[in-house]
Write a structure and sequence with these properties.
Blueprint: E1 3-8, H1 13-18, H2 21-28, E2 29-30, E3 39-44, E4 50-54, E5 61-63, E6 78-84, E7 89-93, E8 96-100, E9 105-108, E10 115-119, E11 128-134, E12 142-144, E13 150-154, E14 163-169, E15 180-186, E16 192-193, E17 198-199, E18 203-210, E19 218-224, E20 227-233, E21 238-241, E22 248-251, E23 256-263, E24 272-273
Parallel strand pairs: 1-3
Antiparallel strand pairs: 2-21, 3-4, 4-11, 5-10, 6-9, 6-11, 7-8, 7-10, 9-12, 13-14, 14-15, 15-23, 16-22, 17-24, 18-21, 18-23, 19-20, 19-22
Length: 280
C-alpha cells in the first residue's frame, strides 16, 4: 500500500497576482483526491494543514507513518478530522471501531495511533475526507453525527445565498486544539457562498466542493480584495485559501462544501469583512 503525498509551498499575494490560471491552480487547487483503493494527501505549508482523500475498496487502508511530518506517526504531534461523503464505512483507531455514514465525522485527538479505513460495500465505497493540523495538546476522539453538528442559518433567498452551516469540529460540539471543520448546505435556488467576502489573516482555510453534477462548476473567487482572481472547480475539487485571500464563489447548479480552518484562534466569527465597493 502506497500513500501518495504532494507538497504545496506558501504562495504570497504578490506572487499570486502575477500567476496565470494554471499557475493559480498549481498553487492552490487540489484535484483527484478520491481514487479507489488509494490514499492521497497534500501537505500544505499554510499552517501545515494536511488535506487528504481515502477511498478503501477491497482492502483496508491504513495511515500511520507519513514521512513528510518528520514524526514516527502522523498523529504524534497532530490532530485530525474525517468526514465521509460517500457510502457507509468504518474508521478504526487501535481497538476502537467507528461506523461513519454519509456526512458523519470523526475528530481524532493528538497521540492516537494508526488510522484504518474500510468501506462496507466496495461497490459503493466510502469517501473519507481527511484534515490534519499540528496540535500542542490531546483532546478526546469524538464521533460526530449530523444531528450533533451546531447549525447556523445565514443569508437569504433574495441574495441567492440562503444556507445552513453545520459546525462539526467546533468548541460548541467537541473539544479540539486548533482545527475547525464544518459543512455548508444551500437552500434550493441559492448559489453564492460567503458574499460579501471576507478575509481572516489569522487563519488559513481549505474548501472541498462536493454534491455536484458532472457538468456543474463552482467559480471560486480568491486573491486580495483589490486584486481578485478566480478558479473554476468541479465535484470533489479542493482549494487552499491563505489568510490574505478572499474566499467566495458561486455555482452553476447544486453543490455543498466542507470548510476547515487552522491558525491562531478558535473563533468562527473572527474575520475582516470586505465592503463590496473595495472589491476589484
Amino acid at each position: 500500500m502506497t500513500i501518495s503525498v504532494s507538497i504545496r509551498q506558501v504562495v504570497g499575494p504578490a506572487d499570486a497576482a502575477r500567476r496565470n490560471t494554471q499557475g493559480l491552480r498549481d498553487g492552490f487547487v487540489i484535484e483527484e483526491l478520491f481514487r479507489p483503493g488509494e490514499i492521497n494527501l497534500t501537505y500544505s505549508h499554510l499552517d501545515r494543514m494536511i488535506v487528504g482523500g481515502v477511498v478503501p475498496a477491497n482492502e483496508k487502508l491504513v495511515i500511520d507513518h507519513v514521512a513528510e511530518t518528520g514524526t514516527e506517526r502522523l498523529l504524534e504531534r497532530r490532530e485530525a478530522a474525517i468526514i465521509n461523503i460517500g457510502g457507509p464505512g468504518r474508521v478504526t483507531i487501535g481497538t476502537n471501531d467507528y461506523a461513519l455514514g454519509f456526512q458523519e465525522a470523526l475528530y481524532i485527538g493528538m497521540g492516537e495511533g494508526a488510522i484504518g479505513f474500510v468501506s462496507d460495500d466496495p461497490a459503493n465505497p466510502a469517501l473519507f475526507y481527511l484534515l490534519s493540523a499540528p496540535a500542542h495538546r490531546s483532546c478526546a476522539t469524538v464521533h460526530i453525527t449530523r444531528d450533533m453538528a451546531k447549525k447556523v442559518s445565514l443569508g437569504s433567498a433574495e441574495e441567492s445565498n440562503a444556507r445552513t452551516i453545520n459546525q462539526y469540529v467546533h468548541p460548541d460540539v467537541c473539544d479540539s486544539c486548533q482545527l475547525l471543520v464544518g459543512l455548508t448546505m444551500f437552500e434550493p435556488g441559492s448559489v453564492w457562498n460567503t458574499m460579501p467576502a471576507h478575509v481572516h489573516d489569522r487563519r488559513m482555510e481549505v474548501y472541498l466542493y462536493f454534491g455536484m453534477e458532472e457538468t456543474t462548476r463552482v467559480f471560486h473567487l480568491m486573491g486580495e480584495p483589490s486584486e481578485t482572481r478566480h478558479v473554476v472547480l468541479k465535484n470533489h475539487d479542493a482549494v487552499l485559501s491563505p489568510g490574505w485571500s478572499i474566499h467566495a464563489g458561486a455555482g452553476t447548479g447544486r453543490y455543498a462544501f466542507i470548510w476547515a480552518m487552522a491558525g491562531d484562534n478558535m473563533s468562527f466569527t473572527d474575520m475582516d469583512k470586505v465592503p463590496m465597493d473595495t472589491l476589484r
